[in-house]
Write a structure and sequence with these properties.
Length: 276
């Protein structure tokens, strides 16, 4: 928990704004140059900074359909490293930046974070196998944390999704979300992310509470948080907001500055009221 506070400047109610990076070269929907992609990512980062969010997370969300773990091609890793470096450079150093590379490309994300000077990654499939829309995703904690050690990147935090969205979990139906959280903590995750069933879907508050009661590491909410429901989630260590900051509340749309400002105004009011 001390590391989380050191990175985000608070232990509760941290707001992490998502940048859904435009489709990268080689992916089916790619139409833009890397320079245009960088410009848009940096513009969104500056909107987040001006609204005083607590952190930023980059993700290659537009690269649908996603490649699977080691099949994620080199150009994706290289482009994410360049975009991440430019975003890191264009905002103040006290604003933490993280990265996720879909799908399940957690080693690549660590390499990008190390090269770009980022502070954290979001990891899929950290513990327990599950069936995602990209295929079977196996647990990766052992390999991932050994790789982090090998590249001298232990200062980079690994926040792990559990019972991940866009996935079927019937093969672990006898393991509830609290037990999954305990396993992630035992396997040295730096934090846990709880989500709804899909992008933009609300997380179950009871599940969030169960996870928080089960572990001593930070717990974040990774989907479905909006200005209309944020008061239900501010007891989490952090909330990751993507769709809720977009025009019309849809992840694929452009970032809406007014939505970001309205959300942060409400959060700051609630923080003062609740002494968070």
């Amino acid at each position: 928990m001390n590391a989380f506070h050191r990175i985000f400047g608070r232990s509760r109610s941290s707001v992490i704004g998502m940048i859904h990076v435009c489709a990268l070269p080689g992916s089916p929907r790619s139409t833009r140059s890397i320079e245009d992609i960088i410009h848009e990512a940096c513009s969104e980062a500056q909107i987040y900074n001006s609204a005083k969010v607590d952190g930023i997370l980059l993700e290659n969300m537009h690269d649908i359909p996603y490649m699977h773990t080691d099949d994620v091609d080199h150009e994706i890793t290289a482009c994410m490293a360049r975009v991440s470096s430019e975003v890191r450079r264009c905002i103040p150093p006290n604003i933490p930046v993280g990265v996720q590379i879909l799908a399940g490309a957690n080693r690549q994300a660590l390499a990008v974070a190390m090269a770009a000077g980022l502070q954290f990654i979001r990891a899929e499939g950290f513990v327990y196998a599950h069936v995602a829309d990209e295929g079977l995703m196996n647990a990766c904690a052992g390999q991932l944390l050994r790789y982090r050690k090998q590249i001298n990147a232990e200062h980079i935090q690994v926040f792990a999704d559990i019972k991940k969205k866009h996935s079927a979990h019937s093969i672990t139906s006898d393991v509830d979300i609290a037990a999954t959280a305990k396993a992630a903590e035992f396997f040295l995750s730096d934090g846990i992310i709880v989500t709804g069933a899909s992008t933009g879907a609300v997380a179950d508050v009871q599940e969030l509470n169960a996870v928080q009661s089960s572990v001593r590491i930070p717990v974040l909410v990774g989907s479905g948080v909006t200005a209309d429901n944020v008061e239900h989630y501010l007891h989490a260590n952090g909330v990751i907001v993507g769709s809720g900051f977009k025009k019309g509340g849809h992840w694929a749309n452009t970032l809406d500055k007014d939505r970001v400002v309205h959300f942060m105004d409400k959060v700051n009011t609630l923080r003062e009221k609740l002494s968070l």
